[in-house]
Design goal:
Largest sheet of chain B: 5 strands, antiparallel
Helix content of chain B: 40-55%
Strand order of the largest sheet of chain B: 2-1-5-4-3
Structural class of chain B: alpha+beta
Strand order of the largest sheet of chain A: 2-1-3-4-5
Order of helices and strands of chain A: EHEHEHEHEH
Number of helices of chain A: 5
Oligomer: heterodimer
Largest sheet of chain A: 5 strands, parallel
Distance between the termini of chain A: 19 Å
Radius of gyration of chain A: 13 Å
Helix content of chain A: 25-40%
Shape of chain A: globular
Number of strands of chain B: 12
Number of helices of chain B: 17
Largest interface: A-B, 29 and 26 residues
Order of helices and strands of chain B: HHHHHHHEEHHHHHEEEHHEHEEHEEHEE
Distance between the termini of chain B: 93 Å
Structural class of chain A: alpha/beta
Amino acid sequence: MESSSPSRVLIADDEPVFRRVILFTLERRGLVVEAVNNGAAALARLRESAFDFVVTDLQMPMMNGLELIRQIRSTPALATLPLILCTGKGLELDTERLCQQFALTAVLHKPFSPQHLARLILNPHPIAERV
Amino acid sequence: MSAKRIFGSVASACSGLSLRVGAVFLGLTLLLALFAAIAPRLEAGPSRIPWLLAVAAATVSGFACLRVGRVPAKIEGELLRTGGDPQAWRTVRPLVGGGHVVEAWNVLIEQAHGRRETDTEHLPAATPDNQVALMARAMRSVAAGIAVTGDDFRITAANPPLAALLGRDDTADLKDQNLLELLAMAASPQTAGGDIASTDAAATDAAATDASAAGSPADGGSGADDEEDEAAVAAIRRLAGGANAVTVRLTCAAPPAGPDGASSLLPPPRNVWRISRTRLDGRDGDSQGFAWLIQDITQQTLATAARDQFLQTAAHELRTPLSNLRAYAEALSIEEGVSVEEQKEFCNIINDETTRLSRLVDHLLTVGQMEAGSMVVHQHIIEPARVIDEAVEYLRPQIAASQLTLHTDISPKLRLLRGDKDKIQATLINLIGNAVKYTPEGGHVWVRAAIHDDTLEIAVEDDGIGISPEDLPRVFEKFFRVDHDSVQGQRGNGLGLAFAREVARLHQGDITAESRVGEGSVFTLRLPAPDEPTTV
């Protein structure tokens, strides 16, 4: 990943209020951010242009976050794209398994700090070959 | 013979039986003597012999009877003496002598005395048979399956409810069947075969399976089925194990599809049983099999699952405004160089989210009551026209802000209602508020109220965006919100209509909805309004 040119981040979340603050936080740190409100739109966008990072909510209309992640990982061109899942689901979700199964950078539990999200995107730990 | 024994014989001889027999023959003898006396005088000598013979015969018969009746007389004497008194019964005596009757009597006495002595652990022999009979009746009628099996799990006794649970018509069908196998069949017919045989060896395996039962939510339906089958197998293993007392939950296999083979939209709920097995103690402390109690806890399980589902959804709903609050508050506190406009905007958003959160908390409390079936309906006398007016006034600011036109058509003949004024008002605010929220600027909202057939009908109509046919059946579900970008302003929390319908039903009424996408919706609240308001 080129560290000189700004990273392009795609946000998928159905809450406009939440999209606004995430955009705000990430853009002031030099990231180029686009936002969509459902998984299907996200997938379409990913097929049109290249992104360096995807942050997705879990519950969205038309295609939820989990399905989006599955589709991304089964697309050869996107198999190593860094992914972060955000969710309000809490401990009911087996996040450890999800991280391992889909090689996610992280699973963030709402409410989380947008600054923390920004840090994760800007300084990602290299993902070991888990596939 | 001692004086006591003479007295004893005389006493028994004077008992009822001998008296009766003796009396008969005495009477007979006297009769004969009388005849002899009043009959014409007979010559002395041979003509008197028949009379003498008759008298002699009568006397001899009398003594013979006394002799033969001696044993019954004694028995009667003992019985008369103890007089049916349980205390005196202890002093009843066996008889001395030979003959079948005496032997039988002595055996009877022995039995009576013998049983009494070894029965010390039971209650005093007041009515032991009544107790046993009552317990037997209770066993037949109790709302749970009860069975007694041997150590090999073969059924030696079962009550009718158990037969019903296992799908048999008669408890006789169950005799000598292996209860553990029957339970395994009920749980998962496919895996029933091999598991019972492998008990101890598999016990450690079972422990491992139980521990890893965390499961994966990502797998979906088939995963859940596999989990349940594994749980059933583990449960059967525990029942087969060596513990003295075991209680397990068993989920039964799904009931077969309907007669036409078509599957319904939702899978039918699987029955859940709670099975308790305890060791039956023998009289000498050794094991004599097991006592089983099987209860159908399907309803409780469903209710618990529904409650858990509700709590999970509620927690998730709460996290959404919370995450907004956190994000905006953090932005305000740590970000450098935030413009004044942005600061104001963020503060407004925080304000709005706080309001949203508090409305959600309020609604959750009411919904929690709804779930528990504990929502209380207070008793007031309600003037429908006034309640509608107050609801409309409450919403005036929003109506004005959206530049909507509100029309009211309230019949003058509305009757007084008995019900919970606050809840009905909240319901109306909800219905009218929805109409306002989902109608674009410049639109119209109508509120009509009239009495039809002893029913108060309040209809709220709008010409707003309407509800699609897919969403319409679901609008009254808890937490259900229509996915719509064009919804302006605050998104609701999906509880308003669920609450409204619950209130309507608690008043023995209902709410219905009709709608066309792009044309508008009509929500109608119907409440019984009899001439004489009765208690809700």
